[in-house]
Amino acid sequence: MTENNGFGKQHDSSAGLRLKTGLAEMLKGGVIMDVMNVAQARIAEEAGAVAVMALERVPAMIRAEGGVARMASPRLIKEIMAACTIPVMAKARIGHFAEAQTLQSLGVDFIDESEVLTPADEQHHIDKHAFTTPFVCGAKNLGEALRRISEGAAMIRTKGEPGTGDVVHAVTHMRTIVREIKALTVLREDELYAAAKNLQAPYELVRMVAQSGKLPVPNFSAGGIATPADASLMMQLGAETIFVGSGIFMKEGGTPLDIEKSDDERKEAISRARAIVLATLHYDDPKIVAEASESVIGSMKGLAAAAIEEKNLMQTRGW
Amino acid sequence: MTPPSPAIGVLALQGAFEVHARRLAELGADAILVRKPGQLAALDALVIPGGESTTFLKHLERTGFYDVLNQFVHSKPAFGTCAGCILLAKEVTNPHQPSLGALDIAVERNAYGRQNDSTILTAETSLPGGSLEMVFIRAPRITRISNGIEVLAKRGDSPVLVRQGHILASTFHPELSDDPRVHQLFLDIVRSSTL
After folding, report:
1. What are A222-273's pLDDT values in tens digits?
2. Smallest CA–CA distance from B119 into chain A, residue
3. Nearest residue of chain A to residue B118 (CA atoms)
4. Residue from B82, B85, B108, B183 carrying the catalytic annotation
5. Does residue B3 fall inside a structural domain?
6. Which domain holds residue B95?
7. What element of type H or E holds B188?
8. What are phi and psi of A113, to 5 degrees?
C-alpha cells in the first residue's frame, strides 16, 4: 500500500492500520493539548496530558490575527519532540500532502489534517493510506467521518468551532454523529445501500458501523472545549478523549498567558491544564468535576460561536 | 458448586483499558474498570494497560492512589502491558521516573523510537501453541532482568514477555492481537493464586 511516498517502512494496509488505531487506543480517556513552545509542552506533560499538538499559533490566535495558517516550523516541532516523552502531533493543511510528508519525515507520532489551518485543496483530502504515520481528521457528521476513515484516518475528532471557548458546536456535532450511528443500527440489511448513498460514504464502512454501533476508529472531541465541565460534558456525550486548543494557554482574544515571565500567569495555565485532565478522567463524578473547576484560576474569555459570521467558521472547511 | 470467579480489575486511568476488558470478557472474566483507589480492596487481580505512563503517574500521585496500588501489586496478581510494564518495573530510564518495583527488571521508555518505528512482529514463545504475534507501539525495552524472572518471549536479545511469580508483563500489546494466550496465562495465574 505505501509505495508512493518513499517514507518509512512498508506496512501492508491491515497491519499498518492496526498500528495506527493502536496508538489512538493508547490515547483514550486523556487530554491532548495544543502547545506553541517547549515551556507550554512541559506544562502539558507535567499536568498529565496524553499527547501534545505542536503548532505555531493556537486557533484563538489564528482567528484574531488572520492570514494564512500553515504547518508549524520543523524547528519548533523538533524542539517540542525533544522536550517531551509523550506523543507529539502536528497539523497539516487539508489536502496538503507535502506538509504531511514533511511531518512524517520529522517523525511526529500523529498528523492532524486540520480545518484550523487554511485549506490547501478545495476538493481532495490527503490520501492517508499512503503514510505510515497515523492521521486524525475532523468531522461534523457520520458521512464526513466515514469519508475520512475511507481515506485512511485512524482517529476522528468531532469538530467544534476552534478558538472560541464555546462548546456549542462540539456538542451539536457529537450528538449528530452518535444519533446517526444509532439510526444505522436499526436499519434492515437491505436498507444500508440507500443509507450509504444518503451519507455519501462507502457501503462497507456503513455496514460495519450498522453492525457494531460505533465508528471503526476511536472518536475524540475537539473545538471550543475550555473548562473541566466542558470536558465532562463531551465525555458523557460519547467522546473518548478531549482535545483542548486555546482553553489552557490563552487569556482573551489572541493573547496567550505569559508563562515564562509572569509567575501568576504560569500558575493559571498549570491550574487549567491539571483541572481539565482530572475532569476528563472523572467525567462521570460531578463532585470531582466540581473540585477540578474550583481549582481553576481565571479562564479563557472566549467568543460566542453564534456571533461568528458563517464565512469565518473553521468547521465548514473540508467535506 | 463452582467457586466464585475471581474479581479482576483493569486500571482505567487512561489508555487501552477497554480492549483489555473486552479480551478478558471473551475469556469468561468480566473485568471492573478501576479509576479510584478505594476500588482495589474488592479485587483479586489487576491489569495495568498501555497508555502514557507519565499520565498514569500524575493521576496516581493524587489522593494516595500510588501507595494503595503499590501494596496491591506486591501481594496480588498483576499484568502490565507497555506503560503497565513500565509502572511495574523496579527501575525506569529515558527518563528516570518512579515505579512500583513489583517486577525486578529495568525498562527503557520509548526504546525503539517513535510511532513510525512501531511494528508488528511474530516470534517464538515458550507458551504452548507456537509462535506469537506481538504488536509494539512506541514500545519500551527491558534492559535488565534479575535471576528470578522467567522470560516467555524475546524480540532479538531483549525479553518482551516476562513473569515473576504473580506478576506478568509484556512490552507489546497482546490485547491488540487476536491471540488470547497471554491473557489466558494471566487468568491461569489469577486462578491458581486465588484457589
Report:
1. 988 999 999 999 999 999 999 998 889 988 778 899 999 999 999 999 999 9
2. A19
3. A19
4. B82
5. no
6. 8-194
7. helix B181-194
8. -85, 100
**ipTM of the modeled complex:** 0.94
Q: Is A207 exposed, middle or buried (0-12, 13-18, 19+ CB in 10 A)?
A: middle
Residue pair A27/A50 in contact (Cβ under 8 Å)? The answer is yes
A219 DSSP β-pair partners: A156
Closest CA to B190 of B39, B71, B35, B24: B24
Which of B16, B18, B114 is opposite residue A109, by nearest beta carbon? B114
Residue B2 belongs to a domain: no
pLDDT in tens, A124-163: 999 999 999 999 999 999 999 999 999 999 999 999 888 8
Domain count, chain B: 1
Whether residue A13 has pLDDT greater than 70 = no
In a domain? residue B176: yes
What SS3 class is residue B13? coil
* Partner residues linked to B31 by β-bridges: B8
Confidence category of residue B2, pLDDT binned at 50, 70, 90: low
A91 catalytic residue (yes or no): yes
